[in-house]
Amino acid sequence: MMTETRRRSQAHFDWPLLLVVYMLSIFGILCITMATYDPDLSAEVPLLNKILNSRSGMWQSIFLLVSPVVIFVIMAIPTDLFRARARLAYVAVLGLLVVTLIAGEVSNGLKGWMKSNILGRSIQPSEFAKLSILLMLARYLSRFEKPMSRFKEFMTVMLIVGIPSLVVLAQGETGTVIVIVFMFMTMIYFAGADFRLILGIVMVGVVGIGVIVGYALMSETTDYRILRLLAFLDPQKYQETGGYQILQARRAIGSGGVTGVGTFVLGSWTTLGYVPESSTDSIFTVVGESFGFVGCVGVLLAYFFLIIRMIYLARFTQDKFGRLVIIGVMAMLFFHVFQNIAMSMGIMPITGIPLPFLSYGGSNFITNIAAIALVLNVTRGRSAATLNTLQSPSLS
């Protein structure tokens, strides 16, 4: 048993994890192209031409080609340097968030974009905030056997998460804040925080959500975030506003049946533009319509492998900082997948949360690639663990 544990804890480059990530990413380019290409193109046009015809498909391909450089750079940095410079990265990203809030671009009612001189693209700093918070939390929580057991520690952790989250919330990025909160809760659980404390935080959150929903039901608010909650509760009542995306996404996925209608089919719901944000937040509707139930299950299995693989890698990582980095990445990707697919099927409220590696978006894609690179960095740099050094009972 000891020998088997040491073998699984050895430093290595985890090719299976990276292979599935790139399989999803390539499939994502296909789905993005189907959602955005010019339907007047002849069906006989080669796939490459269709991708080049689709501005989103072309840019996503560029992001994919750049991604090995991101992985190489992150892999070249020792894990200990990430630990040592986590605070610097956190402060730098927080500063960028504040600048964006003050002078950023407004898009779809959100002030979360900063114009970049790099190829004339805009960046979304809130995406990078997830990784900076993750590294800062891993650095701080790894210092304690029972983190947040004292008031000072509790307040420090809450400020680490709370300050950037409030800035992101002020930008209108509610979905990103929800991801950060879920990642935070998962990390403190696996770090060994008292379960009663975690339960208390959850209860406060539930009460807060209840107050917001109650206020929404009793008022005539026009806030789009509140309207999304109301539309989730009764999409038919709000079918012309907040419920439109939910209803159209259901119809698109349902029209796919068992095996789907096929790729680049003229007259499909997504081709006709009936599903809002079909290349970004609603990309799963393209999967459901084009590839049917079989395609949806295939995508879910790929994500399931990613999540289970990261739990496995964390289980056999001796260093607590590295283990928490992997757990944080796992939690971030898990919630993105769960929320995006659930909202596309109408079983969760609509939020602006993209589907990792499938949805169009440079900031999100590069952030997710960087997160996977951090996991690969930890596994390649770790030392062999023994049974008595794998301390977390939640991973045992």
Count of strand segments: 3
Radius of gyration: 21 Å
Binned, the helix content reads 55-70%
Principal-axes shape call: globular
> What structural category characterises the helix and strand content?
mainly alpha
Order of neighbouring strands in the sheet with most strands: 1-2-3
Our count of helices gives 15
Which sequence of SSEs, written as H and E, runs from N to C?
HHHHHHEEEHHHHHHHHH
Distance N to C terminus: 13 Å
Biggest beta sheet summary: 3 strands, antiparallel
Low-confidence residue ranges: 384-394
Overall pLDDT metric: 86
Portion in beta strands: under 5%
**Domain module count:** 1
Task: Describe the overall structure.
The chain has one domain (12-237, 306-395). A hairpin with a 2-residue loop joins strand 1 and strand 2. It is mostly helical and 396 residues long. Residues 384-394 have low confidence and may be disordered. It contains 15 helices and three strands. The longest helix is centred in the C-terminal third of the chain and has 33 residues, at 283-315. It has helices at residues 2-8, 15-36, 47-53, 55-75, 79-84, 86-103, 125-141, 151-171, 174-190, 195-218, 224-233, 244-255, 283-315, 320-344, 362-381; strands at residues 105-107, 110-115, 122-123. Helix content is 66%, strand content 3%.
